[in-house]
Amino acid sequence: MSKEEKYKALLPQAKALCEGETDMIAQMANLAALLHHEFGFWWTGFYRVKRSEVGGLRPDVPDAEATSDLQPPTSDLILGPFQGPLACMHIGYGKGVCGTAWKERRTVVVPDVEEFPGHIACSSESRSEIVVPIFEKAEVGGQRSEVIAVLDIDSRELATFDDTDRRYLEQLVSYINL
Ligand code: SME
Fold first, then answer.
1. What is the per-residue pLDDT across 113-147, written as a single tens digit (0 to 9) for each?
2. 8 assigned to some structural domain
3. Number of domains comprising the chain
4. Is position 48 within any domain?
5. 123 CA to middle of ligand 1, Å?
6. pLDDT per residue over 16-39, tens digit each?
7. Using one digit for the tens of pLDDT, what is the confidence trace for 73-120?
8. Nearest CA to ligand 1 atom 2
9. For residue 82, which atom of ligand 1 is closest to its CA?
């Protein structure tokens, strides 16, 4: 079966899994399992955007410590439901492939992780990767929608992912009821 045929068979299942379910974590857990076992990926999972508990010192205020001029709480990505080996639990905005997809609000396809500056190697086995951002809601009338999570998939082979994966995976994550 070609990759395209696999996705075509899998999308209706993914849609059915999400239909009528309101718990985002439950949907993510089953989608990760579905993708992981159907394709035999190395690591398949989600990171969610989570506000940090506390703010940090403002880098733009020279004497921030003395004035207690703190920046508002920031966010980072926190590990969500996944299948595969252990993974890092926090990823900063703009960091690694996941943080880049979050910041740039687009799917990032990495044919060779060693060629991606700042790639975070949760596993030395991972050779290529795709990260798909998940938006809070469809963007309507020029209104920007927040990225609330990302889907991250790693492969042990080089150049596993291409535009076909991007297209189908973007469709798949749109089924999640947030
Ligand atoms: N490689 C990712 C980190 C997450 S793991 O692959 C599960 C990155 O660079 O963001």
1. 999 999 999 889 999 999 999 999 766 676 778 99
2. no
3. 1
4. yes
5. 8
6. 999 999 999 999 999 999 999 999
7. 578 999 999 999 999 999 999 999 999 999 999 999 999 999 999 999
8. 120
9. 7
Q: Is residue 21 part of a domain?
A: no
Instruction: Check which CATH number belongs to the domain holding 120 and give it.
Output: 3.30.450.40
Residue 86 lies in a domain: yes
Query: To test ligand 1's pocket by mutation, which of 122, 130, 161 has the most ligand atoms within 8 angstroms of CB?
Result: 122
CA of 95 to the centre of ligand 1 (A): 9
Long-range contacts of range 160-164, CB-CB < 8 Å, 24 or more positions apart?
160/41, 160/127, 160/128, 160/130, 161/109, 161/110, 161/111, 161/128, 161/129, 161/130, 162/109, 163/109, 164/3, 164/4, 164/7
Q: Which of 49, 150, 152 to mutate to test the pocket of ligand 1 (most atoms within 8 A of CB)?
A: 152
Q: In which domain, by residue range, is 133 found?
A: 43-162
Say how far apart CA 86 and CA 116 lie, in whole Å. 21
Structure tokens at 50: 């989570």
Q: Is 122 in the pocket of ligand 1 (CB under 6 A)?
A: yes
